[in-house]
Model the fold of this input.
Amino acid sequence: MKKRSKRTYDDDDGRVIAPMNVEGMSWSLGGHASGAEPRKDKRDPSAPDQEEISLTAEEKRAVMGGVFAAALLIAGIFVLAGLLFVLFCVFFWLK
Done:
């Protein structure tokens, strides 16, 4: 692959008119692009992982029941909102 040569402009004197470094953004914290060392995870890789949680069959059913109840609640809210919108359109808007 052909390597691109860097373009030079006659009117560019190297001054920064409007710096784009924003505090807290990844490029101003010293990531890979700035040449600094990459940030390390807070967890120590040599430390043992947290203990694994083992659930009984009854506990698994209870967790899955809670998940399905929450999903059905959200789906019911969307269905009810759609039904109310259709009723509004039929009886008020399109009348």
Summary: The helical segments are 57-93.
